[in-house]
Specification:
Layout lengths: L3 H10 L6 E5 L12 E2 L9 E2 L3 E4 L13 E8 L13 E5 L11 E4 L3 E3 L6 E4 L9 E2 L10 E3 L7 H9 L4 E5 L3 E7 L3 E2 L10 E2 L2 H11 L3 E8 L3 H8 L7 E5 L10 H8 E6 L3 E2 L5 E5 L2 E6 L3 H19 L9 E6 L10 E11 L2 E6 L16 E5 L11 E6 L6
Bound molecules: adenosine monophosphate and magnesium ion.
Length: 406
């Protein structure tokens, strides 16, 4: 049995970011930039007004004999248009926010600092002197043509989308989204829309994993459930050919029908099998042909936890992320962990911030078949190998499942 750390290292050592592709901007959120983004234009592309007001020459704003200067208004310019004539000495143009500053003007005074005679006024009085450049957003103030605006490896969120849109990248260079084949195993496992029958249980794992794969940013493909026969498994694996990752659940333990390992040995290789942890000892990793396979345990909680620990980092690496692992923090355990395990124990817990520190309480029965203690769990308390006891009031490390990877 290998440690969690060694397992993670061996898995991630075999995983590489997928090739780059282009996706429409609207599909880019959650993906990772495959190249640097270089501005091809100045942004803003032209000097424009930051205010509704009047464009003028700054010299013309100086008081004359103690009186505000009165300028002749020769027209206006709205956002989306350009002025059809220049500002001359002693004149001004009405200007709206975002409109290009007309030639001849070197400043803009906001409407509140002027007096004028309605929207069609032929004159404006400038109530305060204004400096050159006032209320003008110069071309290239935000981004300069040729500037690297975002680096390869940047995760695309709403703010990045805004910048990509500004730069006109209707198609965005990203690392391709992984396709993940999800396979359940077991003669006892029936579909979710089937009534229970003697000895049968419903397929929770495939749906749980599908949702987790999706949340990790990958594209799941649920292949149903293989029977506990070599033939059925072979048939299912034959459908995984264009997947980037295969995730199975069940069939990797030491029972008579735990055949996933056999197929791995037959059609690829087993890198390792079994990790010194709980829940989730029977995790297998290897390949079917060239495709990596993560064989997760059958117990739903074990499948859920081992996906978080190993599956999610794999998908993030394929997606081009550089931050792969959830953060660990020190928490105070309110209720202690009674069961001692010789293996590393990941205890489902809820962590909250109270009275200036993080406190954790466990979410109930920690059996690997008890799915209800996944509810409300936003963290896994890490109880080290060797049967360490955690008493109420002790501190421990917790892996924060709802914090972004670091
Ligand atoms: P196995 O590793 O195949 O022996 O499975 C371990 C336990 O997980 C057994 O109790 C199985 O019935 C259960 N199990 C396996 N696959 C699933 C599944 N897809 N959904 C729910 N439980 C499962
Ligand atoms: Mg089974």
């Amino acid at each position: 049995m290998i440690s969690v750390e060694e397992a993670l290292e061996r898995i991630l050592g075999e995983i590489h970011p997928l090739p780059a592709t282009h996706v429409p901007l609207a599909l880019a959120p959650g993906l990772v930039l495959a190249t640097d983004v270089v501005a091809q234009e100045d942004i803003p592309p032209f000097a424009n007004s930051a205010m509704d007001g009047f464009a003028l020459r700054s010299q013309d704003s100086q008081p004359r004999e103690g009186q505000p200067p009165r300028l002749r208004v020769t027209g206006g310019v709205a956002a989306g248009y350009v002025a059809d004539h220049a500002v001359q000495e002693g004149t001004a143009l009405r200007i709206m926010t975002g409109a290009p500053v007309p030639p001849g003007a070197d400043t803009v005074i906001q409407i509140e600092l002027t007096r004028y005679d309605g929207p069609e006024s032929s004159w404006v009085e400038v109530l305060q002197p204004v400096a050159p450049g006032n209320n003008i957003r110069p071309a290239g103030e935000d981004m300069r043509r040729g500037q690297i605006v975002m680096r390869q490896g940047t995760e695309i969120g709403p703010w990045e989308v805004g910048i990509l849109a500004t730069l006109g990248l209707a198609m965005v260079p990203v690392t391709r989204r992984p396709r993940v084949a999800i396979l359940g195993t077991g003669d006892e496992v029936i579909e979710v829309d089937q009534p229970l029958a003697p000895g049968k249980i419903r397929n929770s794992n495939s749906y749980l994993l599908e949702a987790a794969v999706q949340r990790a940013g990958a594209q799941p493909l649920r292949l149903g459930v293989a029977r506990d026969t070599v033939e059925s498994l072979r048939e299912k694996f034959s459908q995984t050919m264009d997947s980037d990752l295969i995730i199975t659940s069940g069939g990797v333990s030491v029972g008579d029908f735990d055949l996933v390992k056999n197929i791995m040995a037959e059609q690829g290789e087993i890198n390792f099998w079994r990790i010194n942890m709980r829940p989730g000892k029977p995790v297998a990793f290897g390949h079917i042909g060239q495709t990596p396979l993560l064989g997760l345990p059958g117990n739903p909680v074990s499948a859920a936890v081992t996906f978080e620990l190993f599956g999610r980092p794999v998908l993030r690496k394929m997606l081009g992320h550089t931050h792969l692992l959830r953060p660990q923090i020190t928490v105070m355990i309110e209720d202690g962990v009674s069961e001692r395990a010789s293996r590393r124990h990941y205890v489902r817990a809820h962590v909250s911030w109270r009275d200036g520190r993080f406190v954790a309480h466990t979410t109930g029965n920690q059996g690997s078949n008890i799915m209800t203690s996944l509810l409300n769990a936003n963290a896994l308390i890490i109880v080290p190998e060797g049967g360490v006891e955690v008493k109420p009031g002790d501190t421990a490390q917790a892996l924060m499942l709802d914090w972004p990877e670091i």
